[in-house]
User: Which sequence fits this backbone?
C-alpha cells in the first residue's frame, strides 16, 4: 500500500496554487490535511498526476467572526476549530460535531476545508454545512465565487468546485439567540464514520420553534436536508409527538444505501431514531439557553 | 527526489526522498528509526503515531516532505539520557504490552495526551486511546499503565 | 532434591525482561531487518475470485527502472519442488489432496491469489511494477460459499478433485446414539452458524530471505511460531537440505495462529532470493493481511439434542460443514478436534458427529486462536436455548449437567478423562462474583424504563496440554526439549524452540529456571528464534506453560545437580551439604565458604576437570512429556446493554473465574485471558471477513474489518481458582486460547438475555447493530403471531 508515483508542488501563495490548478485541472489533487486523500493514494484508488500541497498557505487558516457570520479559512485544522471560542459561541452545531471526527491525531492534521471539499456523505462536517446553509468561497483563475451548501455537494465525493478552483473559506451563519443544537450519530465504534448521522438545530422564541435545521449524514451520496420535517416543526412547540412526526416525515423519502455496516432498512430506522433523539437534545439545549 | 531536513528527537536529521514517501517510511528506512511501526497504512490503527510540532500525527498519513522543517518526536525520543521516561516505566510496571507492535504508537499518543490532560480519568483515557489498536492485551493493562503514570506524575 | 529451592519468582507478576527494548522502540521485528543489497518484493494478485489465467505479460514491469526481476507462477514452478503447505503437511486432516502450484499458474482461486512476484529496489517500486504486469483472466463461475460448494455440479476449484468436497466425510458415533435419542423426553433441533473472521495480528506476515552463495546457507528472517517448522518448509520447497536453511526470528508482532510454517508468498520470496543471490524482503501490508493471509471459523452446525424434561443433556448429534476457503492449510483438521471436544465438561452419554469440509473461492482457512472453538459456542448456545425452552436458569442447567469430579475421573463420551476439571467450582464462583439475583432485580427495573440489560454465562475446558494419555505424552506434538547451560559469567542460558510473539516466555521461563536452579531472575537468559541453536519446538495449542515450563523446571534441576556435583569437588564437600541459592553455593552452616556459580563455570572452562572422570559438561538437554498434563478451563460472565433502537451493544461488565493450574506469572496469565476475551467481543460485535456472492472480499481495510478498541472492551475481572495439583512438580497449564474460545458464547448469551422481552433466540455468532434490530423485529413478529393464536 505504497503511494503511486506522483508529482508534487508546494505553492507559497493562493495565487500560485490557483495557477497550478489552472494548469493541471483534474489531473491534480489538492493536498490539505491528507487524512482522506493519502489513504486513497495508498490504496491506489486515486492516481492524480500531481499533488498540490496547500499546507504552506497560512493565509487560509483562521477563524473570524464578521457580521452575522463566522468565516473559517479552508486550511484551519479541525483541532484548532475545536478549540475556538468564537466557533463554540457562534456556530455551536459545528462545535458539537468536531469532537466526533475520527481521533485526535486525525483532527491534528485534518482541515475544515479539506473535509468539506472531500465531501464524504458519511462525514460530520458536510451534514453540518448543509444544515446551516454554509457558503463555500472558492478562488479560481476566473476570480472568486460563493457557492451555497445546497449547490456545493453534487454527488459521492463530488462537489461543484471546478478543477481550476481552490476552496479558500467556508462561512457559517452565526446562531441566533435561543438556539440549541445536537449532533447525533450511530457509529460502530468511538471515532468511526457515522452509519447515519444527524445535524440538528432548533431556535426557540417564547417556547415556539422559530427555526429548525435537520441534515443527515450517511443516507445518500450527499448530505440530505430534511426540509419537509423542518417545515413541520416551524411554528410548533416541542413535544415527543411532534418529534416523532418529524422523524417519520424526515425519513419517508430517504433511500439509503446498504453496505457491510447496515442495510437500507436499518439506516432508515436509525435515521428516524436520531431525529427523535436529536430534536429532543436540541430542544433541551435551546431551553437551557433561554 | 526532494531534500528533507528536520529535527527528530532533538537531533537535526536530513535525507532525500520522493515526495510520495510517507513520513513513516522515511523515519524507518532513511533515518533508521525503526521504533515507529506500520500497521495499516490507511490511518486507522495508530501504530505509526509520532509527534510533529507538538501534535500527534499518524505518520503514514503525512508525506516526509511535509515534515521538512518540523520537530518530530518518535518513541525513541520519549526517554532521556538512556533512562526510561515516566510513562515507559509505568507501562513496564503494569505489564502494559505483550507483542509490542502497537506499543510505540500508544506510548506517543499517551505521552501527548497526559501532557495536556494530567488529571484524566479512565474513561477519558480510553477515548483518547481509542484510535490506537492493540490485538493482544484487551487494553486494560495499557490503561492501567497510563493511570499509573498519571498518578506518579501528580505525586511529582 | 538438595538445598532450598526458594520460590521467589514463580507465581509472581515479575516485570518482563522483554519490555526495556519494546518500550524504547528497540524491538527487532522482521520489517526492521535491513541487509546490504536487500531488495523488496510485492505480489501481483488476482482481482477475480475464480478464473483461468490465460496470459501473464511481465515485459512492462521488467522494463521499469528499479525493478530487478519478475517471477511468474510458471517461473516459480521451475524453481521449486511442489508440495503441501507446511502446516497442512504437519497436521493433515486427511482427505483428498488438491493439486496446485506455489503461485497461480493456470488458474486463480480467490481474490488476492498471488500470480507473480515483482522484486525491486524498494517496496514502492515493486508495487509500481505490479501495476504494470498484465494478466488476462477468463472468468469462471465463483464458488462463493459452502452452499454452492456442496453442489456436486459446482465448478471444482481443484481439477484433480472433481468436486469441492475436500475433507473426509464420515460419521462417528460415541455411546448409544440411537437409543439415547429414542429414549429421551424430547429432541430439540437447532441450526447454528459461526461466521468467518480472522487473526489480524498488528504485524502482518513477512520475511527476509538471504542466500549466501558461498556457504549455500539460506538464512530466513521470519515472523513465525516455530523457526524449525519454517526451516523445514523452506528446505522442502526449495529442495535443499534442512541443514542449509537457518531461520532467525526476532520480535514478532502477534500471530494468533497465522504465522506457522511458511506461506506461499514467503516460499516464493525465498526462491526469488536464491535465484537473485541477494536478500529479498516481503512484508505484507494490511490489505494483503485482510484479503489474502487467511481466515477462520466459518462453520455451520445442524444439531439435535436429546434432553430430559428436567434439563439433562443426554446426547448431541451434530452435522457440521466447514468452509475451508481455497488452498488447504488447516481447515480439514478442525472437525476432528471439535468432535473430540464437543461433550465438554458435561455428562453427555452419546455423541454423533459428521462433518464435511468444502473448498470455496475465499482465502484459506488458517489456525486462529483455539481453532476448534466453535464446539464450545455450539454446546453453550444449545444449553442456553434448552434452558429457555425448559424454563431453567442458564447457571442451573449447566450445574445440572456438569460432570462431577470423581476418582477415577469421568471420561468424556469421546474418550478423554476429565481429570482435575473444576467447571462446577468456576461456575459457582463466577455466579457469586456477579451476584446474579441482584442483577435480575436491576434488569427488571431498567426494562421498565425501556433499557435492555442482559447477563450471559458460558464455560469451557481446553486441553492445555490435556490429560496424560495411556502410553503417550500429554502434549500434542510430542516431547518438549530444552537445552540449558551455565556460562562462565554465571548466566544460566535456556535454549527453547518456543517462539514467543507476545506470550512473555523470556520472562516466565526465566522465572521457573531461576527458582529451580537458584540464581536471581536477572541471571537467566532465554534464547529463542535461531534454528541453529534451539531445539525443535512450536508455540501454539496452549501447551507452553506445561510443556516448556515443565522442561525448564526439570532441566534446571538437572543442571543444578550437575553444578553442585562439580562444586562438591571444588569445595571438597559432599553435594548433600551444599546449598545453592541466589547465585551462590556454600557449605551448609558455613556462609564464609560461599562461591559464585560463575566460579564453578570458570574453573571448569579453565580445565580443572580435564583428565578426570568427572562429567564437567555444564550443559544439559532435558525433555519433558507433560507429566500428568491436565485441562485448563473457566467460566465467564458478561453483562451487556443493548440499545433496542440502534442495535448498539455495550459490554458493561465482564467477569472470569478461571483455572489454569499453578500460575507462573499472574500478570501474563491475565493479559492472555483479556486479549482473548477482547477478540471474542470483536468476533461477536465487530469482526467479519465478508464476501459477496461473486467472491469479492468486502473487508479488505480497517474501515470494514473492525477491531475492538479501548472503548469496546471493559475492565475484565479475573479470579484464579485453587488448582487441583495433578503432578508432583509441574502444574502450570496453558491459558493462551481460552479467552477467545469462551467469550463469544458468553457475549451472545448476554445479548439474547437482554432481548428476551422481544422473544429473541440467537443461533449465530455475529451480531452487528443491523442484525440486532432484525432479531428484535423477528422476535416481535413471532410474539405477535403467538399472541394472535
Assistant:
Amino acid at each position: 500500500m505504497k503511494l503511486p508515483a506522483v508529482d508534487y508542488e508546494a505553492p507559497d501563495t493562493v495565487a500560485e496554487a490557483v495557477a497550478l490548478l489552472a494548469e493541471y485541472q483534474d489531473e491534480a489533487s489538492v493536498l490539505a490535511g491528507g487524512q482522506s486523500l493519502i489513504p486513497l493514494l495508498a490504496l491506489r484508488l486515486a492516481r492524480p498526476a500531481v499533488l498540490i500541497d496547500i499546507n504552506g498557505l497560512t493565509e487560509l487558516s483562521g477563524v473570524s467572526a464578521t457580521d452575522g457570520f463566522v468565516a473559517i479559512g479552508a486550511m484551519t485544522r479541525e483541532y484548532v476549530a475545536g478549540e475556538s471560542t468564537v466557533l463554540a459561541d457562534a456556530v455551536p452545531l459545528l462545535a458539537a460535531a468536531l469532537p466526533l471526527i475520527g481521533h485526535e491525531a486525525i483532527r491534528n492534521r485534518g482541515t475544515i476545508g479539506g473535509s468539506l471539499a472531500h465531501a464524504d456523505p458519511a462525514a460530520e462536517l458536510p451534514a453540518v454545512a448543509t444544515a446551516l446553509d454554509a457558503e463555500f468561497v472558492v478562488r479560481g483563475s476566473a476570480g472568486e465565487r460563493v457557492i451555497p451548501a445546497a449547490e456545493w455537494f453534487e454527488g459521492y465525493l463530488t462537489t461543484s468546485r471546478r478543477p481550476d478552483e481552490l476552496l479558500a473559506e467556508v462561512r457559517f451563519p452565526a446562531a441566533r439567540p435561543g438556539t440549541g443544537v445536537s449532533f447525533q450519530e450511530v457509529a460502530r465504534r468511538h471515532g468511526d464514520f457515522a452509519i447515519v448521522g444527524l445535524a440538528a438545530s432548533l431556535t426557540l422564541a417564547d417556547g415556539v420553534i422559530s427555526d429548525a435545521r435537520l441534515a443527515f449524514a450517511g443516507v445518500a451520496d450527499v448530505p440530505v436536508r430534511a426540509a419537509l420535517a423542518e417545515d413541520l416543526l416551524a411554528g410548533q412547540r416541542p413535544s415527543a409527538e411532534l418529534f416523532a412526526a418529524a422523524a417519520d416525515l424526515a425519513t419517508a423519502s430517504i433511500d439509503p444505501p446498504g453496505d457491510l455496516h447496515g442495510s437500507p432498512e436499518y439506516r432508515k430506522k436509525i435515521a428516524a431514531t436520531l431525529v427523535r433523539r436529536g430534536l429532543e437534545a436540541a430542544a433541551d439545549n435551546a431551553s437551557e439557553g433561554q | 527526489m526532494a531534500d528533507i531536513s528536520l529535527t527528530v528527537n532533538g537531533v537535526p536529521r536530513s535525507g532525500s526522498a520522493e515526495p510520495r514517501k510517507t513520513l513513516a517510511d522515511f523515519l524507518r528506512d532513511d533515518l533508521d528509526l525503526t521504533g515507529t511501526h506500520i500497521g495499516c497504512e490507511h490511518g486507522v490503527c495508530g501504530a505509526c503515531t509520532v509527534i510533529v510540532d507538538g501534535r500527534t500525527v499518524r505518520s503514514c498519513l503525512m508525506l516526509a516532505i511535509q515534515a521538512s522543517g518540523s520537530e518530530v518526536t518518535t518513541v525513541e525520543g520519549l526517554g532521556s539520557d538512556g533512562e526510561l521516561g515516566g510513562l515507559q516505566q509505568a507501562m513496564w510496571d503494569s505489564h502494559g504490552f505483550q507483542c509490542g507492535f502497537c506499543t510505540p504508537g500508544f506510548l506517543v499518543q499517551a505521552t501527548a495526551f497526559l501532557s495536556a490532560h494530567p488529571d484524566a480519568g479512565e474513561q477519558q483515557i480510553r477515548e483518547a486511546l481509542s484510535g490506537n489498536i492493540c490485538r493482544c492485551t484487551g487494553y486494560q493493562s495499557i490503561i492501567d499503565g497510563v493511570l499509573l503514570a498519571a498518578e506518579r506524575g501528580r505525586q511529582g | 532434591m538438595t538445598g532450598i529451592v526458594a520460590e521467589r519468582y514463580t507465581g509472581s507478576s515479575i516485570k518482563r525482561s522483554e519490555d526495556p527494548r519494546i518500550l524504547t522502540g528497540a524491538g527487532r521485528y522482521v520489517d526492521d531487518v535491513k541487509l546490504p543489497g536487500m531488495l523488496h518484493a510485492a505480489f501481483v494478485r488476482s482481482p477475480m475470485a475464480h478464473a483461468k489465467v490465460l496470459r501473464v505479460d511481465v515485459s512492462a514491469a521488467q522494463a521499469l527502472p528499479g525493478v530487478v526481476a519478475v517471477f511468474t507462477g510458471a517461473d516459480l514452478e521451475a524453481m521449486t519442488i511442489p508440495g503441501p503447505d507446511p502446516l497442512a503437511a504437519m497436521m493433515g486432516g486427511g482427505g483428498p489432496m488438491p493439486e496446485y502450484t506455489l503461485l497461480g499458474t493456470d488458474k486463480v482461486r480467490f481474490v488476492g491469489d498471488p500470480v507473480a512476484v515483482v522484486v525491486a529496489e524498494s517496496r514502492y517500486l515493486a508495487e509500481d511494477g505490479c501495476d504494470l504486469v498484465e494478466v488476462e483472466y477468463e472468468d469462471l463461475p465463483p464458488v462463493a460459499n459452502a452452499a454452492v460448494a456442496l453442489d456436486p455440479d459446482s465448478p471444482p476449484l481443484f481439477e484433480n478433485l472433481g468436486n469441492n468436497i475436500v475433507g473426509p466425510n464420515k460419521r462417528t458415533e460415541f455411546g448409544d446414539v440411537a437409543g439415547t435419542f429414542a429414549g429421551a423426553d424430547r429432541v430439540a433441533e437447532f441450526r447454528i452458524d459461526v461466521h468467518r473472521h480472522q487473526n489480524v495480528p498488528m504485524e502482518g506476515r513477512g520475511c527476509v530471505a538471504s542466500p549466501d552463495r558461498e556457504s549455500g546457507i539460506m538464512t530466513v528472517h521470519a515472523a513465525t511460531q516455530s523457526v524449525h517448522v519454517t526451516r523445514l518448509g523452506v528446505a522442502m520447497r526449495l529442495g535443499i537440505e534442512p541443514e542449509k536453511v537457518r531461520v532467525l526470528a526476532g520480535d514478532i508482532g502477534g500471530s494468533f495462529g497465522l504465522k506457522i510454517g511458511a506461506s506461499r508468498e514467503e516460499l516464493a520470496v525465498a526462491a526469488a532470493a536464491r535465484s537473485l543471490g541477494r536478500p529479498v524482503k516481503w512484508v505484507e501490508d494490511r490489505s494483503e493481511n485482510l484479503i489474502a493471509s487467511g481466515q477462520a471459523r466459518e462453520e455451520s452446525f445442524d444439531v439435535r439434542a436429546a434432553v430430559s424434561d428436567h434439563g439433562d443433556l443426554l446426547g448431541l448429534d451434530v452435522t457440521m460443514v466447514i468452509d475451508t476457503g481455497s488452498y488447504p492449510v488447516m481447515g480439514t483438521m478442525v472437525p476432528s478436534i471439535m468432535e473430540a471436544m464437543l461433550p465438554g465438561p458435561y455428562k453427555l452419554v452419546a455423541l454423533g458427529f459428521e462433518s464435511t469440509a468444502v473448498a470455496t473461492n475465499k482465502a484459506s482457512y488458517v489456525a486462529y486462536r483455539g481453532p476448534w472453538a466453535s464446539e464450545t459456542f455450539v454446546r453453550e448456545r444449545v444449553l442456553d436455548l434448552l434452558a429457555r425452552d425448559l424454563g431453567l436458569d442458564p447457571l442451573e442447567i449447566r450445574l445440572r449437567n456438569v460432570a462431577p469430579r470423581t476418582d477415577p475421573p469421568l471420561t468424556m463420551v469421546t474418550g478423554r478423562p476429565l481429570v482435575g476439571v473444576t467447571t462446577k467450582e468456576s461456575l459457582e464462583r463466577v455466579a457469586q462474583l456477579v451476584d446474579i439475583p441482584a442483577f435480575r432485580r436491576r434488569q427488571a427495573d431498567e426494562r421498565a424504563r425501556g433499557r435492555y440489560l442482559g447477563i450471559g454465562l458460558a464455560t469451557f475446558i481446553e486441553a492445555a496440554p490435556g490429560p496424560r494419555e495411556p502410553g503417550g505424552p500429554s502434549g500434542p506434538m510430542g516431547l518438549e526439549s530444552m537445552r540449558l547451560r551455565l556460562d562462565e559469567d554465571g548466566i544460566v542460558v535456556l535454549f527453547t524452540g518456543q517462539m514467543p510473539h507476545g506470550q512473555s516466555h523470556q520472562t516466565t521461563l526465566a522465572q521457573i529456571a531461576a527458582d529451580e536452579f537458584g540464581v536471581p531472575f536477572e541471571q537467566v537468559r532465554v534464547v529463542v528464534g535461531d534454528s541453529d541453536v534451539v531445539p525443535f519446538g512450536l508455540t501454539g495449542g496452549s501447551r507452553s506453560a506445561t510443556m516448556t515450563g515443565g522442561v525448564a523446571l526439570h532441566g534446571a534441576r538437572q543442571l543444578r545437580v550437575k553444578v553442585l556435583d562439580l562444586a562438591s569437588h571444588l569445595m571438597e564437600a559432599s553435594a548433600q551439604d551444599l546449598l545453592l541459592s541466589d547465585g551462590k553455593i556454600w557449605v551448609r552452616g558455613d556462609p564464609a565458604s560461599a562461591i559464585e556459580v560463575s566460579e564453578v563455570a570458570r574453573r571448569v572452562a579453565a580445565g580443572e576437570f580435564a583428565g578426570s572422570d568427572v562429567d564437567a559438561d555444564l550443559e544439559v538437554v532435558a525433555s519433558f512429556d507433560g507429566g500428568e498434563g491436565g485441562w485448563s478451563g473457566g467460566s465467564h460472565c458478561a453483562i451487556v446493554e443493548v440499545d433496542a433502537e440502534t442495535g448498539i451493544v455495550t459490554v458493561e461488565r465482564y467477569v472470569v473465574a478461571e483455572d489454569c493450574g499453578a500460575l507462573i506469572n499472574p500478570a501474563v496469565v491475565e493479559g492472555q485471558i483479556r486479549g482473548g476475551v477482547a477478540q471474542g467481543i470483536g468476533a461477536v460485535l465487530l469482526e467479519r471477513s465478508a464476501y459477496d456472492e461473486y467472491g469479492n472480499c468486502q473487508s479488505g481495510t480497517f474501515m470494514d474489518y473492525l477491531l475492538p478498541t479501548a472503548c469496546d472492551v471493559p475492565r475484565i475481572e479475573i479470579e484464579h481458582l485453587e488448582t487441583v495439583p495433578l503432578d508432583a512438580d509441574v502444574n502450570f497449564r496453558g491459558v493462551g486460547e481460552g479467552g477467545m474460545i469462551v467469550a463469544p458464547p458468553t457475549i451472545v448469551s448476554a445479548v439474547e438475555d437482554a432481548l428476551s422481552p422481544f422473544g429473541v433466540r440467537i443461533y449465530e455468532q455475529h451480531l452487528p447493530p443491523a442484525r440486532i434490530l432484525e432479531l428484535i423485529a423477528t422476535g416481535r413478529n413471532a410474539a405477535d403471531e403467538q399472541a394472535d393464536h
